[in-house]
C-alpha cells in the first residue's frame, strides 16, 4: 500500500484551495468554483468544503483583514465528481470588521452554509488557557501510514497517503480498534507535509480543513467505538471556529479535543489548538450525527 510516486499532498491542498473566479461571473454574490479531493466513498470531505468556503469569503475582503470566526452548517452530502460553486454575500464592511456569508452549491442546492467574520489586527486584552503538559513530541509518534501499514483497504490507503495533513495521535488511535479506557478526550499533532504560501488567511482556512478530521473521535473513544465499527453512520452537522493568534499550518500544531455530551444520536466535541511554543491559536466546536446499529451492544 503506497501512494502514487508523483503525488504531493501539500501541492494538492494548495490546488484545492486555489478557487477559480468562474470567469468573473457575478450575480448578487461573488462566485467561485472549486474541485474536490477523491474519497473512497465519493463523498466530499466536510473539512474540504469548509476550507474552500473560507477561501472564497477571504477573496472578497482586503488581505489585511484576517478571519477570526466562522459558524457553518453542513446541509447535504457533497459529490466528489461534481464541481462546487461558492456564492459569497458581502454582509457588512465596517471600520475594523467584515462579515461574509458563503453558500457552497452542487446541482443548484446548498451543501454548506457559513458566516465568517474578518478583522483588522488590533491590540487589547490577552490571556489564554495553558497548553497541556507532558505531551510527547510529534517526531516520537508513529505516522498514520505506519499505524495502518497492515490494513489493505481503500480507506486505510486514503488516510495514510492522500490526506494533506501529517496526523500523529498522542492518545491511542481509534482507526480500527476501540480505546478500552473510554475517555472522552483525544489529542493529535498535525501539520501539512510541505511548506505553504505566506498567506495568513490561507493558513487559517487550511487549519479549518484539518480540524474536521478527528473532532468526533472523543465521542467514539468515550463509547468504545472505532472508525471501523460495522454499520456506523457518522456525519458532521455544524462547525464553529475561532482563530485567536497568527499561526502556520506547516508547523506542528497540537489539537486537544474533548466531548462534553452525546445524546439524541448526536455528539458534541470541542477542540483547542496550540503551536509548539504553547500559544493557543484556535478553538473549535462541532456537533456530529452518530447512528449505530444494535445500539445497546456498544454500551
From TrEMBL:
One GO BP annotation of this record: acyl-CoA metabolic process
A Pfam family this chain is assigned to: Acyl_CoA_thio
GO MF, any single term: fatty acyl-CoA hydrolase activity
Chain ranges of the Acyl-CoA thioesterase-like N-terminal HotDog domain: 43-119
Xref: InterPro entries: Acyl-CoA_hotdog, Acyl_CoA_thio, HotDog_dom_sf, TesB_ACOT8-like_N, TesB_C
Catalysed transformations (reactions): a fatty acyl-CoA + H2O = a fatty acid + CoA + H(+)
Keywords associated with the record: Hydrolase, Lipid metabolism
Superkingdom of the source species: Bacteria
Record-annotated Acyl-CoA thioesterase 2 C-terminal domain positions: 182-289
Record note on quaternary structure: Homotetramer.
Family under the similarity heading: Belongs to the C/M/P thioester hydrolase family.
Protein name from the UniProt record: Acyl-CoA thioesterase 2
Species of origin: Arthrobacter caoxuetaonis
